[in-house]
Amino acid sequence: QVQLVESGGGLVQAGGSLRLSCTASGSWFSINVMAWYRQVSGKQRELVAAVFSGGSTNYADSVKGRFTISRDNANNIVYLQMNSLKVEDTAVYYCAADFVMHATHALSTSWGQGTQVTVSS
């Protein structure tokens, strides 16, 4: 299984920057995708950005040009650099990993506990 621990959330003024980190630990055959999602209370969780094992990335339209996802494969860390933050970026941000299990080679997904990002006007 993969355990994910996020850090880096907090309070920032609009226009500011934050960097989120997510460290994976445990045991796996491979991690195919690492991603960041966010959720506002009462709304569905939405994909913010994803990075695939080959290095390609995918972003929500609302964050393109402002957020950058990157992956440190050697240390099993995924980052989300968030620049030009807006009030509407306020949410709980969750890290997720799609991975292949060692013994069975079954696919599974793990989630972090979430970190609050609050952007003030």
What is the tally of beta strands?
11
Could you say which overall geometry the principal axes of the C-alpha atoms support?
Answer: elongated
Assembly state of the chains shown: single chain
How much beta, percentage-wise? Answer: over 45%
Low-confidence stretches: none
* Helical residue percent band: under 10%
Distance between the termini: 40 Å
Which radius of gyration do the C-alpha atoms yield?
A: 14 Å
In terms of structural class, how would the helical and strand content be classed? Answer: mainly beta
Nearest-integer average pLDDT:
95
Major sheet description: 7 strands, mixed
Write the element-wise H/E pattern from the N-terminal end onward: EEEEEEEEEEE
Count up the helices.
Answer: 0
Features:
elongated, 121 residues, 4-stranded antiparallel β-sheet
SSE order and pairing:
Layout: E1 2-7, E2 10-13, E3 18-26, E4 30-39, E5 46-52, E6 57-59, E7 67-72, E8 77-82, E9 91-100, E10 107-111, E11 115-120
Parallel strand pairs: 2-11
Antiparallel strand pairs: 1-3, 3-8, 4-5, 4-9, 5-6, 7-8, 9-10, 9-11
Describe this structure in words.
- The chain is mostly beta strands and 121 residues long.
- 0% of the residues lie in helices and 60% in strands.
- The protein has no helices and eleven strands.
- It has strands spanning 2-7, 10-13, 18-26, 30-39, 46-52, 57-59, 67-72, 77-82, 91-100, 107-111, 115-120.
- Strands 2, 4, 5, 6, 9, 10 and 11 form a seven-stranded mixed beta sheet that branches. Strands 1-3-8-7 form a four-stranded antiparallel beta sheet, with no helix packed on it.
- Strand 7 and strand 8 (77-82) form a beta hairpin.
- It is elongated.
- The mean pLDDT is 95.
